[in-house]
Design brief:
By secondary structure, this protein is mostly helical. It is built from 17 helices and no strands. It has helices at 9-18, 27-38, 41-55, 59-83, 90-97, 100-135, 154-169, 171-196, 203-206, 226-237, 246-249, 257-286, 297-304, 308-342, 361-377, 380-408, 421-465. Helix 2 (27-38) crosses helix 14 (308-342), helix 3 packs across helix 6 and helix 16 packs across helix 17. The radius of gyration is 21 Å and the shape is globular. The two termini are 13 Å apart. The structure holds alanine (ALA). Alanine binds next to helix 3 and helix 6.
């Protein structure tokens, strides 16, 4: 019963081909969409949580290891994504490889990951807004309206609702806004590097004089929380790569998904990994890592080395850049909801397509409202960890699907082939499984509850309403 109701690859593709969504995205749009989706709270905000609490200066290695995990995943993921272009992404691949029940669980993980990602990036956006106002000495927002610890995080709620309105209007317009903001984001990172480089002090990395626990395995001034700390940092740093998968969800809206997706996914991850390692290395090289646990860590560090102008520019750039991430996470979330509802597993109202804009407007509005509520009332670090666990787990399901399909459909056309599929697949599963375990102590209970809730929903509602009945 758990493995029944599989779809064939052609069934999934056929549905995608009949899709009513406009095909407007080319390879450059996709690459920029990838950078737009990835560079965000992971680097601009979570670095300020990872460095002081988990990795110390070895935050550089945390970004390296999570980048390696992302590249490994992408190799397998791109194979299935180009073989089965569909806006349901991992959910659709699981439907083909494992059947409806596991596909539904994967959908639950995707929804969990995207929803917490969008909300936590909105909270990060609100942090940088505050930082900018602070740097200009403007104090119009009472503290109780800028944090979940007060009444609510009002700016975070407002930005999610604005982005939702933009997405309802259309993908083409959203892609254009994204392209502009990505350029701003890259420019600001370049400015940070230029200002920070002359102040870089290698001693802050290796001889910072900060006490650490020598009993921890492989601990040093560089790795003050030991290897386990650095890998726990890598588990959360994975958040910074969340988003590359979303490109696959845009497959239905690509002009040529089979050719463009693989180029866009792999190149955008590699570029991000290089950027993250350089930027995180510079951050801990200009400010001691134990001082970084503050809102807007990058702006703080620049202020610290005497560049207030730099701090303002970087805060504004991060602020603008984070907008594109919210946009993308909500974009993908609405497409996943749309795809699952189209199969009858989520309520039918989520399948409505706007007559004029041809966007899945009701799934978009639903995603936006849910994310706005979470952004207003939940803490940043918990949402980030939940998001990382959800993303890694959903991606691992795609890796397993890649291996299953190699066995079950060996001759099916594959525009991109994962090299050494079973070896790469096995290493990816083991490595990602380990990264997931590093987060479970903090958020395992929430993830477990969400999955249990999803299983109940599946058997009470979805199984009966499925189009596969
Ligand atoms: N990768 C995205 C970010 O870091 C989710 O904000």
């Amino acid at each position: 019963m758990l493995f029944d109701r599989k779809k064939t690859i052609d069934e999934v593709r056929d549905v995608s081909k009949q899709g009513e969504l406009k095909k407007t995205l080319g390879v450059l749009n996709l690459f920029l969409l990838g950078l737009g989706a990835m560079i965000g709270a992971g680097i601009f905000v979570y670095t300020g949580i990872i460095a002081p609490n988990m990795s110390g200066p070895s935050v550089v290695l945390s970004f390296f290891f999570s980048g390696i995990a992302s590249i490994l995943i992408a190799l397998a993921y791109t194979e299935v994504a180009t073989m089965i272009p569909s806006s349901g992404a991992s959910y659709s691949y699981a439907y083909v490889a494992f059947g409806e029940f596991f596909a539904f669980l994967v959908a639950a993980l995707l929804v969990m990951y995207l929803f917490t990602a969008a909300s936590s990036v909105a909270v990060a956006w609100s942090q940088y807004l505050n930082k900018i106002l602070d740097l200009f000495n403007i104090h119009i927002l009472p503290a109780s309206l800028t944090s979940y610890e007060g009444i609510m995080n009002l700016p975070a709620i407002i930005i999610v609702l604005l982005v939702t309105a933009l997405l309802v209007k259309g993908t083409k317009e959203s892609a254009l806004v994204n392209d502009i903001l990505v350029v701003v984001k890259i420019a600001v990172i370049a400015i940070f590097i230029i200002i920070a480089l002359p102040h870089f002090n290698i001693d802050y990395l290796f001889h910072n004089g900060i006490e650490y626990n020598k009993a921890l395995s492989l601990s040093s001034e560089f790795m003050p929380f030991g290897l386990h700390g650095t890998m726990t940092g890598a588990g959360l740093a994975f958040f910074a790569y969340n988003g590359f998968d979303g490109l696959a969800s845009a497959a239905e809206e690509c002009k040529n998904p089979e050719r463009d997706l693989k180029k866009a996914i792999l190149s955008s991850i590699i570029v991000c990994m290089l950027i993250y390692m350089v930027v995180a290395g510079l951050l801990v090289g200009i400010t001691k890592y134990n001082e970084l646990g503050v809102d807007g860590a990058f702006a703080y560090a620049l202020n610290n080395i005497g560049s207030t102008k730099g701090a303002i520019i970087v805060a504004i750039g991060a602020f603008a850049g984070l907008t594109t991430v919210i946009l993308f996470q909500l974009f993908v979330l609405s497409r996943v909801l749309f795809a699952v509802a189209r199969d009858g597993l989520f309520p039918k109202f989520l399948t409505k397509v706007h007559k004029k804009f041809r966007t899945p407007y009701s799934a978009t509005i639903f995603s936006g409202l849910a994310a706005a509520i979470a952004a207003g009332f939940l803490p940043l670090d918990v949402m980030g960890k939940i998001s990382s666990v959800g993303a890694i787990s959903a991606f691992v399901s795609a890796v397993i699907a890649m291996m299953v399909l190699r066995i079950k459909s060996p001759d099916h056309k594959r525009p991109f082939k994962c090299p050494a599929p079973f070896l790469v697949g096995a290493i990816t599963i083991l490595f990602c499984g380990y990264l997931i375990t590093t987060q479970l102590e903090a958020v395992g209970k929430y993830v477990g509850l969400w999955l249990a809730f999803s299983i109940v929903v599946y058997f009470i509602y979805s199984r009966k309403n499925s189009k596969m009945v």
